[in-house]
Amino acid sequence: MNRAYPYIAIVTAMLIWSLSGIAIKEALTVFPQLTLIVLRFTIAVLLMLSVGLSARAVSRRRKGQESGLALQRVERKDLPVFLLGGFFQPFLYFILETFTYDSLSSPTIAEALLSTAPVFAPVFGIVLLRERVTRNNILGIVLSTAGMLMLILVGADSFALGNAWGVLTAFLAVSAALLYSVTLKRVPERYNSLTVVFYMQSFSLLLFFVCWLFTDKTQAPLTASAVLSVLYLAVFSSVTAFILFCYTVRQIGITRANVFNNIRPAFTAIAMFLIFDEHLPWGKLAGIALIIIGLFICQYVKKEPEKHI
What we know:
It is built from 13 helices and no strands. It is mainly α and 309 residues long. The radius of gyration is 20 Å and the shape is globular.
């Protein structure tokens, strides 16, 4: 395996997710929130099912090595970890995230609190997975998190917290996201990333659907931009990015993978600057620079000296 592949995968995933907010905002002009979630994950699950079964059929015809996109059968003894992962994310994380944004008076504060996963990732990695965390990992996390906070908070209009429960749900949401990462590492290596994401999201979709049955389903008239936004969220945010993130976590661990969450606000800020001509002050540029420096430091692994016999 090329050592660069996990990093290309995680940066691509974060770029996709950083643009999801724009798509969600557009889609919500037509669809209620739970309707949007059920719609996007229904499309995502059906897409993964089609691709996975097609790849499996091709592999069988060729009688060669199984494709990395082939949908595999999950053994009964492994089902609990798949169900647990689907419960933590997207299901529980999305619910807690929504409550956080609704409870806190400032979306900026909510985004800052929800972006603290890299800070707590080493704790989850050490306690639950016994991952080795180095000084470079810690230093990189500190620098990139400081950069992320600068990027989010510089120029913010309001710093009032609002409902204190929103702070609690923000940290619960971060915990759910990190526990999802832990379950990805717990899944046996014989399962490919598409299989992992398919089964976890199928279970999440079932939970979302039950919740959706008891909500208001009134929607505005369809628009082309809303439909395209739903397709972006389904194909790229819910399938492509999740598969890439799953692959990376299983390759480099939750500490080094989750630190890349700090680059999402940077991608969003750059996109808003390029697409909507939004002002990008020096404080935000400095934050972006700190994030990038921190990422490089966090990923640095000191080579062990060669032993001569």
